[in-house]
Amino acid sequence: MKILIAYHSFSGNTEEIAEMIQDRLNHHGYQPELYEIGMGAYFPELSNYDVVMLGTFTWDLGSTPAEVKDFVADVGYKPDNIAVFGSGETQFGGEEMFCLAVTKLARFYNSPWEGLKIEQSPRGSQEIKVSNWVDGIVESVRKEKEQKSWVTVGV
After folding, report:
1. DSSP state, 113?
2. Measuring CA to CA, which residue among 65, 60, 47 is closest to residue 105?
3. Which structural domain range is residue 33 located in?
4. What is the predicted pLDDT for the residue at 147?
5. pLDDT value of position 151
6. How many domains does the chain have?
7. How far apart are CA 25 and CA 106, in angstroms?
8. Residues in CB range of 26: below 8 A, 6 or more apart
9. Which DSSP state fits 42?
10. Per DSSP, what are the bridge partners of residue 87?
11. In this structure, are residues 105 and 115 in contact, taking their beta carbons and an 8 Å threshold?
12. What CA–CA distance (Å, rounded) separates 98 from 16?
């Protein structure tokens, strides 16, 4: 399975989540590619990946950063394999604004997976949230691939 982890980070929290996701995927035997939005010398072709994990932080009372919006526009279409994760802070805007960029992007892409929302840094008990989120996506993609292979062989 080819996996891209594309993320944009300001304080380092979203980058830390991306690296934690990468480690968990490595645990499953995958070698995901990390791509820092706004810093890459190339633009990845998303159709080459089975899953694209898109990471963002939320700022300015629920906004998605301009760099992430530019990335979405540069993609130019809505892939159906996008899983969204991100960091936010409930102290700015309360629960209704917490990780609102994650909610907006997951809705925009009609993601088959619930967005992963992390309060600031993914340390402590939030590490379990990251692992469970990754495990759920890996399992659902494996099942989907198995079903497709059964259909392909005519069973």
Report:
1. S
2. 65
3. 3-152
4. 81
5. 59
6. 1
7. 20
8. 32
9. S
10. 57, 118
11. yes
12. 18
- How, if at all, do strands 116-119 and 3-7 pair? unpaired
Greatest pairwise CA separation for the chain in angstroms: 54
Structure tokens at 47: 């159709």
- Higher per-residue confidence, 147 vs 79: 79
Q: Quick check: 106 and 114 in contact, CB under 8 A?
A: yes
Burial of 98 (0-12, 13-18, 19+ CB in 10 A): buried
End-to-end CA distance of the chain: 23
Find tokens 């079903």 and name the residue: 147
What pLDDT, on a 0 to 100 scale, did the predictor assign at position 154?
Answer: 53
- Quote the mean pLDDT of the chain: 92
What are the tens digits of pLDDT across the range 80-96? 999 999 999 888 777 88
Alpha-helical regions (H) of 3-125: 13-27, 66-75, 94-97, 100-108
Closest to 55 measured CA to CA, from 117, 131, 125: 117
Residue 150 scores a pLDDT above 80: no
Share of the chain above pLDDT 90, in %: 75
